[in-house]
Design the sequence.
């Protein structure tokens, strides 16, 4: 009788939970103590945070969120690179891939400032460099409009984005259905993250005034 193997995404979730468990720290009313798994502390007090020296009693929830944000971004970055390679172009960086998708978005021409605004990036030089590389790869073209340049995706760029979508559907969306079939939880998480981005922006402005 053949052995029934678990769903590969379930195995991945078990691996991820094990990896995050190794980053667990304990917080109580005394100065912050570092606590690895396998110790005898009450598990109900253990919090998954990124930096125990930043996880104060009143701010550990934010540190917990930031840890999730860090590993989620790195996982996302790794994913978009592998997905684009599977779609046929392994030479693009994460930023270049995001810029290409943004320029292709809704089939509208965009200025450099539009792309930076949508991606919430202040460093226009890195975005401009990414656009120039996409132009060299003939995935994006630019057309002068007054003093500005409007960028749009070429046929090759649109075709590459469509291949990327096919790989995304096959490799990512199918696995995601196991976790959140209708995507309601993801929509709520996305709304919360957009709100928190504003909180971080405001905190950045406050810090720059000190």
Sequence:
């Amino acid at each position: 009788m053949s052995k029934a193997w678990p769903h590969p995404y379930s195995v991945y979730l078990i691996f991820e939970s094990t990896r995050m468990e190794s980053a667990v720290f304990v917080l109580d009313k005394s100065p912050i103590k570092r606590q690895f798994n396998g110790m005898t502390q009450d598990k109900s007090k253990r919090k998954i945070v990124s930096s125990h020296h930043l996880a104060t009693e009143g701010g550990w929830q934010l540190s917990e969120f930031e840890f999730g944000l860090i590993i989620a971004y790195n996982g996302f970055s790794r994913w978009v690179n592998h997905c684009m390679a599977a779609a046929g172009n392994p030479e693009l960086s994460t930023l270049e891939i995001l810029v290409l998708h943004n320029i292709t978005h809704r089939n509208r021409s965009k200025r450099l400032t539009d792309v930076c605004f949508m991606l919430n990036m202040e460093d226009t030089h890195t975005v401009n460099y990414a656009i120039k590389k996409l132009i060299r790869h003939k995935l994006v073209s630019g057309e002068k409009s007054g003093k500005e340049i409007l960028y749009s995706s070429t046929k090759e760029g649109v075709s590459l984005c469509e291949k990327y979508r096919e790989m995304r559907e096959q490799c990512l969306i199918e696995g995601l259905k196991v976790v959140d079939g209708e995507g309601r939880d993801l929509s709520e998480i996305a709304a919360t993250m957009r709100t928190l981005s504003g909180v971080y922006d405001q905190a950045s402005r406050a810090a720059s005034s000190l």
